[in-house]
Amino acid sequence: MLVKIEHAKTPNESKASYRAGCKKVMSNISEKRICQNCRGEFIIEPDDFGFYEKIGVPPPTFCPECRFQRRLMWRNERTFYKRTCDLCKKNIISTYDKNQSFPVYCQKCWWSDKWNPYEYGIDFDFSRPFFEQFKELLSKVPMLNMQNDDGVGSVNSEYAQDFAFSKNCYLTSVGWYCDNVMYSYYTCYDRDVVDSFFINNSEKCYECFESDRLFDSKYSHLCFDSVNLNFCYDMRNCQNCFMCTNLRGQNYYIRNEPYTREAYFEELKKENLDKKDKIDKHRIELKEMMLKCPNRFVHIIKSLNCTGDMLINSKMSLDSFWVSNLENCRYLMLMDGAKNSYDCNNSGNPELCYESVTPDNSFNNLFTIFCWKCSYVFYSNNCHSSNNLFGCIGLKHGEYSIFNKRYTKEEYTELRKKIIEHMKKTGEWGEFFPSIISPYSYNESFNLDFFFLNRNEAIDKGFSWKEDKERNYIITLHKEEIPNSIDNVDENILNEVIECQHSGNCEHKCSKAFKIIERELKFYKKMNIPIPTLCPNCRYYERLKQTNPLKLWHRKCMKPGCNNEFETSYAPDRPEIVYCEKCYQQEVY
Ligand SMILES: [Zn+2]
Ligand SMILES: [Zn+2]
Ligand SMILES: [Zn+2]
Ligand SMILES: [Zn+2]
Ligand SMILES: [Zn+2]
């Protein structure tokens, strides 16, 4: 029997002509390579060779997953330290602890003219490897306490990591153009959003994830273009629904049954969405419903010729996850808007970028970390609004610079060429920064979220590990005393040190205790939500656990009698029902 392999795209013929603008394809056959790191096999396709040729780098020697891992070592999303700004001495929080050898400046100081990054400039030494010298520069140049633009492009968002163009955001990571977003991860163009994950263009949302264009919704997953959802899963264009799955264009539904408007609100009242104990029961009920409903094999929304998962409004992009608005890209994660780019993560609007961490609004950044609004910047870290840099750290409006030394255009071009030749000999050219020179330990880095290793495993693999410091919080509100309803909470809660329900007995980097801030309390009151019982880290990891891994497996449609096969992010041993497009479409209504 003929087995139809289903892709969310129509494969091959169309992508070859579009991707990477690669007219001069060196080879028209795919090549199998062995990853230099994990020894696993990976494939480089003709289009990929075209891309590497276009940007002038050799094909990768690491497989896509090892490349991703290597970049993740340079991000710290949620391990923050109290310390002082090494310039103005004010108390700050930072992704870097006190033991780092480089100074750490608060945003106001770092972005100011009170220091000069060119003072740290060094001559390149052709008798030594590139990365060794880069590590030395890294140990001296002042770093930003948090990667954000507070006081420059953002307002009152000091405690937001990797955030830009936002206001009033707090303990939230990755996003831009947000207002009043707290305790969330990857939010773009949102307002009044708390405890959410990969949610864009939304307002008044709580505990929503992998969703887009939601308004006034709570505890919902994979919901799009909807209003007033509570405990819903996989919904589109719906309004006023509670405990529903797989609905399209419906209004006033409870447990997938229709109600009149009056009856809906009458019934909803009985569900006690303002009570903690009821919410816990609803969570369990939704989980049970999700195991009975069919899942589309992949979540690719409004996109053309794409592979990966959680891909929205994109075209001709492959192997990408948690992304929106991509064009001709491959191996991108957590991105909004990108063109002709490969191997980038956590970024917006890069073009022709490769192997870069957060090359926001940049053109032709190769091997960069947090270099925003740059062009032609290579092997650099934390440089902004700059062009033509190689091996630089901490420059603002820099140009034609190498290892923080300024050159003429001609000198720069010549020296850059010589360094690349040198790096070819040392085997460094074309490789991203080695994990070992990252200022973060494995368990501080973003790696922990996707490639979980315990202490011994990480050390065995050559990663550094940071021992947990004993936190001596004096808990003033024990977990069994947390009020069941928001009605029983007043301003006094702001003074309490609340015990996390997990009390550190989990693998979530549990902080054991947490506080509630004023804006947050206002949000809970306005939305009629009971206060949380888990610390922000535990809340985040509980949500992350409900998402699919950034990986695809080859599987068969589970609908009896259907033989369609596909690539899906649902691993074969998972309990969910996974259908091909055709069978899934027959089940949604
Ligand atoms: Zn590998
Ligand atoms: Zn300062
Ligand atoms: Zn916790
Ligand atoms: Zn926990
Ligand atoms: Zn099927």
Topology (SSEs and partners):
Blueprint: E1 5-6, H1 13-18, E2 31-34, E3 41-44, H2 46-55, H3 64-72, E4 81-84, E5 91-94, E6 104-105, H4 107-110, H5 130-138, E7 143-144, E8 160-164, E9 172-176, E10 179-182, E11 185-188, E12 191-194, E13 197-200, E14 203-236, E15 239-245, E16 251-254, E17 257-258, H6 261-270, H7 276-292, E18 294-296, E19 300-301, E20 308-312, E21 320-327, E22 330-339, E23 342-348, E24 354-357, E25 366-369, E26 375-381, E27 387-390, E28 399-402, E29 405-406, H8 409-426, H9 447-450, H10 455-460, E30 498-499, E31 513-514, H11 518-527, H12 536-545, E32 553-556, E33 565-568, E34 577-579, H13 581-587
Parallel strand pairs: 1-33, 6-7, 8-9, 9-11, 10-12, 11-13, 12-14, 13-14, 14-15, 15-16, 18-34, 19-20, 20-21, 21-22, 22-23, 23-24, 24-25, 25-26, 26-27, 27-28
Antiparallel strand pairs: 2-3, 4-5, 16-17, 28-29, 30-31, 32-33
Bound molecules: zinc ion (ZN) (5 copies).
